[in-house]
Amino acid sequence: MLETLFKPFPLNETLSLSNRILMAPLTRCMADDNLVPTQAMADYYARRAEAGLIISEATIIRADGQGYPNTPGLFTPEQIQGWRNVTDAVHRKGGKMFAQLWHTGRVAHPYFWKGDKVLAPSPIQVDGTVPRMRELTYIEPTPATPGELKQLVDDYAQAAANALEAGFDGVEIHGANGYLIDQFLHYGANSRDDEYGGTPENMVRFPLEVVDAIIERIGSDRTALRISPGAYFNMEGDVRDRAVFDYLLPELEKRDLAFLHIGIFDDSMEFDYLEGTASNYVRRYYSKTLVGVGGYTAETGSSAINNNQFDLLAIGRPFIANPDFIQKVKKGEELAEYHDDLLGELV
Ligand code: FNR
Ligand code: 8K6
């Protein structure tokens, strides 16, 4: 049964994975104060190099994309060099690694870059305070002008080019979990009445501009995308969101991405407006390589692949608890259980 997981999987003509298990992107807030990846991070990722593909923790494309302390960046020479040390360590162990490109949009906080405003589609504020820094309350975002959006698209493309310079095998655009790109795709965060809002065609415009600019810069073979059709984190759901994703998925299908990845913490969650789980919904509209995630074990993930629910399995929390997840699963050894205390250090 588990054999499926350990067969090589060609993503395209450029990239082939040694197995079907991905390490999911996992924010750890352990970069240094200049948002440069550290040696401890290189060691942490290298210990997990047996994954078919590691997706890095979300990495900000520019200073005003930051929403949490010590999340790494990919926009200064020092950050690129820090990541080069990480990708070299992973490659030396035979692994492959994509960078997850991130801008948190309205979930950003100007405290981090000593700024005065936060850019987002619309002036709709998220409730609450920054995790781990509860004294920071989210602020009302400023709607990005078309000129600012164009600059953001350029900055995403530059971050993708920086990722390749840093030795990554490709990038995953973070279009999930309520951050900037996802904010355009949900009515709960997008109330624009210009060409970036109001209709499905307009709401997918900025996300597709980012995807296309990155494809043009580094090629579709090395470009992947993560999306959350079901709103569940930093986002209110709206039945009208369904039409946006119905429009987006066939557009993505045309673009020959390396893969599409669902952004969800628990893929057993059902969404009324998606008529079921996020992965079942996406599978109906998207026939190319799909990565499933969210509460799976090797066993349940492998049967989901065998049932054609998705093609590749991403593992998050169990990979935090078990650096040797792949070996343990191969040998049938017992896994250490994940608990939040493990987030305090990079094991
Ligand atoms: C996450 N997740 C996440 N997702 C993402 O797209 N970028 C990120 O940086 C993070 N960071 C992150 C940190 C921590 C501590 C957790 C627990 C989760 C979500 C993650 O990629 C994955 O979708 C979920 O963890 C569900 O998979 P598991 O853990 O059930 O295998
Ligand atoms: C991407 C940056 C996040 C930094 C911290 C990660 C959070 C860890 C776990 C939070 C779990 C939130 C899950 C929300 C699920 C809602 C289900 C209704």
Automatic annotation (TrEMBL):
- One Gene Ontology term, aspect cellular component: cytosol
Domain named NADH:flavin oxidoreductase/NADH oxidase N-terminal: residues = 5-334
Mind telling me which Gene3D superfamilies this protein's record contains? Aldolase class I
User: Which superkingdom heads the taxonomic lineage of this protein's source?
Assistant: Bacteria
Keywords in UniProt for this one?
Oxidoreductase
Sorted alphabetically, which CDD domains does this protein's record hold?
OYE_like_FMN (cd02933)
Cofactor(s) needed: FMN
- One Gene Ontology term of the molecular function aspect: FMN binding
Asked whether the UniProt record includes Glycoprotein among its keywords, one would answer no
Which Pfam family, giving just one, matches this sequence? Oxidored_FMN
Which SUPFAM superfamilies does the protein's record reference? FMN-linked oxidoreductases
InterPro entries to which the protein is assigned, alphabetical: Aldolase_TIM, OxRdtase_FMN_N, Oye-like
Family that this chain belongs to: Belongs to the NADH:flavin oxidoreductase/NADH oxidase family.
Protein's recorded name? Alkene reductase
Q: Which organism is it from?
A: Marinibactrum halimedae
The encoding gene: sye4
